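Researcher: Going back to the complex we discussed earlier. I've cleaned up the inputs and rechecked each line, so this should be the final set. Can you rerun the prediction on the complete assembly and write out the structure?
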Amino acid sequence: MNADLSVSPLSLAILGLISLQPLSGYDLRKCFATTPMGHFSASPGAVYPALGRLEKAGWIQGAQDDRQELRPRRMFSLTEEGKAILVAYLSRGITREDVIWRLDELLLRFSFMGHWVTKARVKRFLIQFGQEACRYVEVLRAQRASFPDLPSATARLALEYGIEQYQAAVRWADQALVEVGSKP
Amino acid sequence: MNADLSVSPLSLAILGLISLQPLSGYDLRKCFATTPMGHFSASPGAVYPALGRLEKAGWIQGAQDDRQELRPRRMFSLTEEGKAILVAYLSRGITREDVIWRLDELLLRFSFMGHWVTKARVKRFLIQFGQEACRYVEVLRAQRASFPDLPSATARLALEYGIEQYQAAVRWADQALVEVGSKP
DNA sequence: CGATACATGTAACCGGTTACATGATTTT
DNA sequence: AAAATCATGTAACCGGTTACATGTATCG
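Model: Rerun complete. Updated structure for the full complex:
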Protein backbone atom coordinates (compact mmCIF):
# COMPACT_ATOMS: atom_id res chain seq x y z
CA MET A 1 0.00 0.00 0.00
CA ASN A 2 2.78 2.35 0.88
CA ALA A 3 5.67 2.10 -1.56
CA ASP A 4 7.89 4.69 0.08
CA LEU A 5 7.76 2.98 3.43
CA SER A 6 11.39 2.44 4.12
CA VAL A 7 12.40 -1.20 4.09
CA SER A 8 15.21 -2.38 6.32
CA PRO A 9 18.03 -4.26 4.57
CA LEU A 10 17.01 -7.46 6.34
CA SER A 11 13.43 -7.14 5.13
CA LEU A 12 14.65 -6.45 1.61
CA ALA A 13 16.82 -9.56 1.71
CA ILE A 14 13.87 -11.64 2.90
CA LEU A 15 11.58 -10.19 0.27
CA GLY A 16 14.17 -10.88 -2.41
CA LEU A 17 14.84 -14.46 -1.40
CA ILE A 18 11.19 -15.30 -1.04
CA SER A 19 10.52 -13.79 -4.45
CA LEU A 20 12.61 -16.58 -5.97
CA GLN A 21 10.76 -19.42 -4.20
CA PRO A 22 8.67 -19.95 -1.07
CA LEU A 23 10.88 -20.37 1.99
CA SER A 24 10.49 -21.02 5.70
CA GLY A 25 12.12 -18.92 8.39
CA TYR A 26 14.58 -21.70 8.91
CA ASP A 27 15.47 -21.83 5.21
CA LEU A 28 16.13 -18.10 5.32
CA ARG A 29 18.37 -18.44 8.34
CA LYS A 30 20.38 -21.19 6.67
CA CYS A 31 20.80 -19.04 3.61
CA PHE A 32 21.96 -16.07 5.69
CA ALA A 33 24.31 -18.27 7.67
CA THR A 34 26.11 -19.62 4.60
CA THR A 35 26.30 -16.64 2.25
CA PRO A 36 27.48 -13.04 2.46
CA MET A 37 23.83 -12.10 2.80
CA GLY A 38 24.31 -13.02 6.43
CA HIS A 39 25.56 -9.45 6.81
CA PHE A 40 21.90 -8.62 7.09
CA SER A 41 21.58 -10.96 10.05
CA ALA A 42 20.86 -14.63 10.60
CA SER A 43 19.70 -14.53 14.20
CA PRO A 44 16.26 -15.96 14.95
CA GLY A 45 15.48 -12.88 17.03
CA ALA A 46 15.78 -10.81 13.87
CA VAL A 47 14.40 -13.14 11.20
CA TYR A 48 11.16 -14.29 12.84
CA PRO A 49 10.01 -10.87 13.97
CA ALA A 50 10.85 -9.50 10.50
CA LEU A 51 8.72 -12.22 8.92
CA GLY A 52 5.93 -11.26 11.30
CA ARG A 53 6.16 -7.60 10.34
CA LEU A 54 6.20 -8.38 6.62
CA GLU A 55 3.18 -10.64 6.97
CA LYS A 56 1.34 -8.04 9.00
CA ALA A 57 2.08 -5.49 6.30
CA GLY A 58 0.57 -7.86 3.75
CA TRP A 59 3.74 -8.21 1.69
CA ILE A 60 4.26 -11.91 2.32
CA GLN A 61 1.96 -14.69 3.42
CA GLY A 62 2.74 -17.86 5.29
CA ALA A 63 1.10 -21.20 4.57
CA GLN A 64 1.26 -24.13 6.94
CA ASP A 65 3.27 -26.92 5.44
CA ASP A 66 1.23 -30.11 5.81
CA ARG A 67 3.79 -32.73 6.67
CA GLN A 68 3.19 -35.18 9.45
CA GLU A 69 6.85 -35.64 10.30
CA LEU A 70 8.78 -33.01 12.21
CA ARG A 71 7.44 -29.73 13.41
CA PRO A 72 5.26 -28.09 10.82
CA ARG A 73 6.92 -25.35 8.82
CA ARG A 74 5.43 -22.12 7.64
CA MET A 75 6.36 -21.52 4.03
CA PHE A 76 6.28 -17.85 3.07
CA SER A 77 5.66 -16.46 -0.37
CA LEU A 78 5.29 -12.94 -1.78
CA THR A 79 1.88 -11.38 -2.15
CA GLU A 80 1.17 -9.19 -5.15
CA GLU A 81 1.58 -6.15 -2.97
CA GLY A 82 4.89 -7.49 -1.72
CA LYS A 83 6.03 -8.05 -5.26
CA ALA A 84 5.13 -4.46 -6.12
CA ILE A 85 7.06 -3.15 -3.13
CA LEU A 86 10.09 -5.25 -4.08
CA VAL A 87 10.04 -4.09 -7.69
CA ALA A 88 9.62 -0.47 -6.62
CA TYR A 89 12.57 -0.83 -4.31
CA LEU A 90 14.75 -2.48 -6.92
CA SER A 91 13.84 0.16 -9.48
CA ARG A 92 14.91 3.11 -7.36
CA GLY A 93 17.68 5.30 -8.65
CA ILE A 94 21.00 5.48 -6.86
CA THR A 95 21.92 8.52 -4.84
CA ARG A 96 25.37 9.68 -3.89
CA GLU A 97 24.45 8.97 -0.28
CA ASP A 98 23.60 5.36 -1.13
CA VAL A 99 27.06 4.83 -2.58
CA ILE A 100 28.78 6.42 0.40
CA TRP A 101 26.66 5.20 3.28
CA ARG A 102 24.68 2.17 2.08
CA LEU A 103 26.95 0.21 -0.25
CA ASP A 104 25.92 -3.17 1.15
CA GLU A 105 22.27 -2.48 0.61
CA LEU A 106 22.98 -1.33 -2.94
CA LEU A 107 24.68 -4.61 -3.78
CA LEU A 108 21.84 -6.50 -2.17
CA ARG A 109 19.43 -4.63 -4.42
CA PHE A 110 21.58 -5.35 -7.43
CA SER A 111 21.72 -9.07 -6.72
CA PHE A 112 17.92 -9.33 -7.04
CA MET A 113 17.55 -6.98 -9.98
CA GLY A 114 18.24 -9.67 -12.57
CA HIS A 115 14.87 -11.25 -11.93
CA TRP A 116 12.52 -8.40 -11.60
CA VAL A 117 13.64 -5.34 -13.52
CA THR A 118 14.54 -4.67 -17.12
CA LYS A 119 18.03 -4.89 -18.48
CA ALA A 120 17.90 -1.16 -19.12
CA ARG A 121 17.45 -0.53 -15.42
CA VAL A 122 20.30 -2.86 -14.58
CA LYS A 123 22.49 -0.89 -16.93
CA ARG A 124 21.34 2.40 -15.48
CA PHE A 125 22.19 1.10 -12.03
CA LEU A 126 25.72 0.18 -13.10
CA ILE A 127 26.29 3.48 -14.87
CA GLN A 128 25.10 5.57 -11.92
CA PHE A 129 26.93 3.35 -9.49
CA GLY A 130 30.19 3.72 -11.40
CA GLN A 131 29.77 7.48 -11.69
CA GLU A 132 29.08 8.05 -8.03
CA ALA A 133 31.83 5.68 -6.93
CA CYS A 134 34.21 7.54 -9.22
CA ARG A 135 33.18 10.86 -7.74
CA TYR A 136 33.64 9.55 -4.23
CA VAL A 137 37.15 8.38 -5.09
CA GLU A 138 37.90 12.01 -5.89
CA VAL A 139 36.43 13.15 -2.59
CA LEU A 140 38.58 10.68 -0.70
CA ARG A 141 41.68 11.65 -2.66
CA ALA A 142 41.00 15.28 -1.83
CA GLN A 143 40.71 14.35 1.82
CA ARG A 144 44.03 12.59 1.69
CA ALA A 145 45.61 15.60 0.02
CA SER A 146 44.08 18.19 2.34
CA PHE A 147 45.01 16.36 5.51
CA PRO A 148 48.77 16.22 5.33
CA ASP A 149 48.25 16.46 9.07
CA LEU A 150 46.74 13.00 8.99
CA PRO A 151 47.63 11.80 12.44
CA SER A 152 49.66 8.78 11.38
CA ALA A 153 50.79 6.52 8.59
CA THR A 154 48.13 3.97 9.44
CA ALA A 155 45.38 6.59 9.32
CA ARG A 156 46.58 7.56 5.84
CA LEU A 157 46.71 3.91 4.81
CA ALA A 158 43.18 3.34 6.11
CA LEU A 159 41.99 6.19 3.93
CA GLU A 160 43.86 4.69 1.01
CA TYR A 161 42.11 1.40 1.70
CA GLY A 162 38.82 3.20 1.12
CA ILE A 163 40.14 4.69 -2.11
CA GLU A 164 41.21 1.26 -3.36
CA GLN A 165 37.84 -0.22 -2.48
CA TYR A 166 35.92 2.39 -4.42
CA GLN A 167 38.31 2.15 -7.35
CA ALA A 168 37.70 -1.59 -7.43
CA ALA A 169 33.98 -0.80 -7.38
CA VAL A 170 34.36 1.44 -10.42
CA ARG A 171 36.25 -1.26 -12.31
CA TRP A 172 33.65 -3.82 -11.35
CA ALA A 173 30.81 -1.62 -12.59
CA ASP A 174 32.58 -1.05 -15.92
CA GLN A 175 33.22 -4.74 -16.40
CA ALA A 176 29.71 -5.71 -15.34
CA LEU A 177 28.28 -3.21 -17.81
CA VAL A 178 30.20 -4.89 -20.60
CA GLU A 179 28.93 -8.32 -19.55
CA VAL A 180 25.35 -7.23 -19.20
CA GLY A 181 25.46 -5.41 -22.50
CA SER A 182 27.04 -8.23 -24.48
CA LYS A 183 24.55 -10.91 -23.52
CA PRO A 184 21.26 -9.98 -25.12
CA MET B 1 38.94 -2.44 34.70
CA ASN B 2 37.51 -4.97 32.29
CA ALA B 3 39.56 -5.25 29.13
CA ASP B 4 37.42 -7.83 27.39
CA LEU B 5 34.31 -5.75 27.76
CA SER B 6 33.17 -5.46 24.21
CA VAL B 7 33.43 -1.97 22.81
CA SER B 8 31.00 -0.81 20.16
CA PRO B 9 32.54 0.57 16.98
CA LEU B 10 31.24 4.03 17.83
CA SER B 11 32.85 3.93 21.26
CA LEU B 12 36.09 2.75 19.73
CA ALA B 13 36.03 5.63 17.25
CA ILE B 14 35.41 8.10 20.08
CA LEU B 15 38.17 6.60 22.19
CA GLY B 16 40.56 6.73 19.24
CA LEU B 17 39.81 10.32 18.32
CA ILE B 18 39.99 11.55 21.89
CA SER B 19 43.30 9.74 22.30
CA LEU B 20 44.81 12.14 19.75
CA GLN B 21 43.57 15.30 21.49
CA PRO B 22 40.79 16.37 23.86
CA LEU B 23 37.55 16.92 21.98
CA SER B 24 34.00 18.01 22.70
CA GLY B 25 30.94 16.07 21.63
CA TYR B 26 30.38 18.66 18.97
CA ASP B 27 33.93 18.27 17.65
CA LEU B 28 33.38 14.52 17.41
CA ARG B 29 30.14 14.98 15.52
CA LYS B 30 31.81 17.33 13.04
CA CYS B 31 34.57 14.82 12.51
CA PHE B 32 32.09 12.01 11.94
CA ALA B 33 30.05 14.16 9.59
CA THR B 34 32.99 14.99 7.34
CA THR B 35 35.00 11.78 7.19
CA PRO B 36 34.30 8.11 6.45
CA MET B 37 34.33 7.58 10.20
CA GLY B 38 30.78 8.83 10.03
CA HIS B 39 29.92 5.23 9.23
CA PHE B 40 30.01 4.79 12.97
CA SER B 41 27.35 7.47 13.37
CA ALA B 42 27.25 11.21 13.71
CA SER B 43 23.83 11.62 15.30
CA PRO B 44 23.66 13.45 18.61
CA GLY B 45 21.41 10.72 19.96
CA ALA B 46 24.28 8.29 19.53
CA VAL B 47 27.32 10.42 20.33
CA TYR B 48 26.22 12.08 23.58
CA PRO B 49 24.91 8.90 25.22
CA ALA B 50 28.09 7.10 24.14
CA LEU B 51 30.18 9.82 25.79
CA GLY B 52 28.07 9.40 28.92
CA ARG B 53 28.65 5.65 28.97
CA LEU B 54 32.38 6.01 28.42
CA GLU B 55 32.64 8.58 31.20
CA LYS B 56 30.61 6.41 33.54
CA ALA B 57 32.94 3.51 32.75
CA GLY B 58 35.85 5.73 33.72
CA TRP B 59 37.54 5.55 30.31
CA ILE B 60 37.20 9.23 29.47
CA GLN B 61 36.67 12.32 31.56
CA GLY B 62 35.04 15.59 30.67
CA ALA B 63 36.28 18.96 31.82
CA GLN B 64 34.21 22.10 31.62
CA ASP B 65 35.71 24.51 29.16
CA ASP B 66 35.96 27.89 30.87
CA ARG B 67 35.04 30.30 28.17
CA GLN B 68 32.58 33.11 28.82
CA GLU B 69 31.39 33.35 25.24
CA LEU B 70 29.03 30.77 23.80
CA ARG B 71 27.66 27.80 25.59
CA PRO B 72 30.29 26.05 27.65
CA ARG B 73 31.81 22.96 26.11
CA ARG B 74 32.81 19.79 27.81
CA MET B 75 36.19 18.70 26.55
CA PHE B 76 36.79 14.98 26.92
CA SER B 77 40.12 13.28 27.30
CA LEU B 78 41.22 9.70 27.89
CA THR B 79 41.86 8.45 31.38
CA GLU B 80 44.70 6.03 31.97
CA GLU B 81 42.22 3.21 32.14
CA GLY B 82 40.68 4.35 28.86
CA LYS B 83 44.10 4.42 27.29
CA ALA B 84 44.72 0.86 28.46
CA ILE B 85 41.41 -0.29 27.03
CA LEU B 86 42.16 1.37 23.72
CA VAL B 87 45.63 -0.15 23.46
CA ALA B 88 44.28 -3.59 24.41
CA TYR B 89 41.66 -3.26 21.73
CA LEU B 90 44.14 -2.11 19.09
CA SER B 91 46.52 -4.92 19.99
CA ARG B 92 44.03 -7.72 19.48
CA GLY B 93 44.73 -10.30 16.84
CA ILE B 94 42.53 -10.59 13.79
CA THR B 95 40.13 -13.48 13.44
CA ARG B 96 38.65 -14.87 10.26
CA GLU B 97 35.27 -13.68 11.52
CA ASP B 98 36.56 -10.12 11.86
CA VAL B 99 37.62 -10.09 8.23
CA ILE B 100 34.30 -11.49 7.04
CA TRP B 101 31.84 -9.77 9.33
CA ARG B 102 33.54 -6.72 10.81
CA LEU B 103 35.77 -5.25 8.10
CA ASP B 104 34.84 -1.66 8.91
CA GLU B 105 35.77 -2.04 12.52
CA LEU B 106 39.07 -3.64 11.54
CA LEU B 107 39.99 -0.64 9.41
CA LEU B 108 38.95 1.68 12.20
CA ARG B 109 41.29 -0.17 14.52
CA PHE B 110 44.06 0.00 11.98
CA SER B 111 43.71 3.74 11.52
CA PHE B 112 44.50 4.33 15.20
CA MET B 113 47.23 1.73 15.48
CA GLY B 114 49.96 4.02 14.20
CA HIS B 115 49.91 5.99 17.43
CA TRP B 116 49.59 3.44 20.11
CA VAL B 117 51.07 0.10 19.12
CA THR B 118 54.45 -1.06 17.91
CA LYS B 119 55.38 -1.34 14.27
CA ALA B 120 55.68 -5.08 14.72
CA ARG B 121 52.02 -5.25 15.67
CA VAL B 122 51.04 -3.12 12.70
CA LYS B 123 52.91 -5.55 10.47
CA ARG B 124 51.29 -8.53 12.12
CA PHE B 125 47.89 -6.95 11.54
CA LEU B 126 48.61 -6.50 7.85
CA ILE B 127 49.96 -10.02 7.43
CA GLN B 128 47.00 -11.65 9.16
CA PHE B 129 44.58 -9.36 7.40
CA GLY B 130 46.03 -10.25 4.01
CA GLN B 131 46.02 -13.96 4.78
CA GLU B 132 42.43 -14.07 5.95
CA ALA B 133 41.23 -11.86 3.11
CA CYS B 134 43.00 -14.18 0.69
CA ARG B 135 41.35 -17.21 2.22
CA TYR B 136 37.97 -15.57 2.03
CA VAL B 137 38.49 -14.85 -1.65
CA GLU B 138 38.84 -18.61 -2.10
CA VAL B 139 35.65 -19.23 -0.14
CA LEU B 140 33.75 -16.77 -2.30
CA ARG B 141 35.19 -18.26 -5.49
CA ALA B 142 34.11 -21.70 -4.32
CA GLN B 143 30.64 -20.34 -3.72
CA ARG B 144 30.51 -18.94 -7.20
CA ALA B 145 31.67 -22.26 -8.63
CA SER B 146 29.32 -24.41 -6.57
CA PHE B 147 26.25 -22.35 -7.32
CA PRO B 148 25.95 -22.59 -11.09
CA ASP B 149 22.31 -22.35 -10.10
CA LEU B 150 22.92 -18.81 -8.99
CA PRO B 151 19.53 -17.31 -9.61
CA SER B 152 20.62 -14.65 -12.06
CA ALA B 153 23.44 -12.83 -13.75
CA THR B 154 23.19 -9.94 -11.30
CA ALA B 155 23.40 -12.30 -8.32
CA ARG B 156 26.59 -13.75 -9.80
CA LEU B 157 27.94 -10.28 -10.44
CA ALA B 158 27.15 -9.22 -6.87
CA LEU B 159 29.18 -12.17 -5.63
CA GLU B 160 31.98 -11.18 -7.98
CA TYR B 161 31.84 -7.69 -6.52
CA GLY B 162 32.65 -9.22 -3.15
CA ILE B 163 35.52 -11.17 -4.66
CA GLU B 164 36.94 -8.01 -6.24
CA GLN B 165 36.64 -6.12 -2.96
CA TYR B 166 38.56 -8.73 -1.00
CA GLN B 167 41.16 -9.04 -3.73
CA ALA B 168 41.68 -5.31 -3.53
CA ALA B 169 42.02 -5.71 0.22
CA VAL B 170 44.77 -8.30 -0.25
CA ARG B 171 46.66 -6.02 -2.64
CA TRP B 172 46.28 -3.11 -0.22
CA ALA B 173 47.65 -5.16 2.66
CA ASP B 174 50.66 -6.27 0.60
CA GLN B 175 51.40 -2.73 -0.49
CA ALA B 176 50.89 -1.31 3.00
CA LEU B 177 53.26 -3.90 4.40
CA VAL B 178 55.94 -2.74 1.99
CA GLU B 179 55.40 0.89 2.98
CA VAL B 180 55.41 0.21 6.69
CA GLY B 181 58.47 -1.96 6.37
CA SER B 182 60.52 0.44 4.28
CA LYS B 183 60.15 3.46 6.55
CA PRO B 184 62.03 2.63 9.72
C1' DC C 1 15.77 40.24 11.21
C1' DG C 2 16.40 35.65 9.80
C1' DA C 3 19.66 32.06 9.00
C1' DT C 4 23.55 29.65 10.29
C1' DA C 5 27.12 28.01 13.42
C1' DC C 6 28.13 26.72 18.07
C1' DA C 7 26.87 23.43 21.68
C1' DT C 8 24.49 19.89 24.60
C1' DG C 9 21.23 17.08 25.46
C1' DT C 10 16.51 14.12 25.84
C1' DA C 11 12.65 10.99 24.44
C1' DA C 12 10.10 7.89 21.62
C1' DC C 13 10.80 4.47 18.56
C1' DC C 14 12.72 0.66 16.14
C1' DG C 15 15.07 -3.34 15.41
C1' DG C 16 19.13 -6.35 16.01
C1' DT C 17 21.76 -9.44 19.62
C1' DT C 18 22.00 -12.93 22.85
C1' DA C 19 20.16 -16.34 25.27
C1' DC C 20 16.64 -19.24 26.28
C1' DA C 21 12.37 -22.43 25.68
C1' DT C 22 10.26 -26.14 23.34
C1' DG C 23 9.96 -30.40 21.10
C1' DA C 24 10.30 -34.06 17.43
C1' DT C 25 13.53 -36.89 14.63
C1' DT C 26 17.89 -38.66 13.18
C1' DT C 27 22.60 -39.78 13.82
C1' DT C 28 26.57 -41.32 16.67
C1' DA D 1 22.02 -42.11 25.88
C1' DA D 2 23.70 -38.04 24.01
C1' DA D 3 24.24 -34.94 20.40
C1' DA D 4 22.96 -32.86 16.30
C1' DT D 5 19.41 -31.33 13.03
C1' DC D 6 14.97 -29.58 12.01
C1' DA D 7 11.92 -25.80 13.30
C1' DT D 8 9.66 -21.79 15.55
C1' DG D 9 9.51 -18.60 18.56
C1' DT D 10 10.02 -15.15 22.95
C1' DA D 11 12.17 -11.78 26.24
C1' DA D 12 15.56 -8.75 28.07
C1' DC D 13 18.83 -5.81 26.65
C1' DC D 14 21.34 -2.48 24.05
C1' DG D 15 22.14 1.13 21.24
C1' DG D 16 21.30 3.78 16.94
C1' DT D 17 17.71 7.02 14.43
C1' DT D 18 14.86 10.82 14.22
C1' DA D 19 13.07 14.62 15.97
C1' DC D 20 12.79 17.91 19.25
C1' DA D 21 14.21 21.39 23.06
C1' DT D 22 17.17 25.00 24.40
C1' DG D 23 20.04 28.90 24.10
C1' DT D 24 24.04 32.19 22.46
C1' DA D 25 26.74 34.49 18.91
C1' DT D 26 27.71 35.80 14.42
C1' DC D 27 26.91 36.81 9.58
C1' DG D 28 24.39 38.66 5.68
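Model: Worth noting: The radius of gyration of chain B is 20 Å.
Researcher: Good, that matches what I expected from the previous run.
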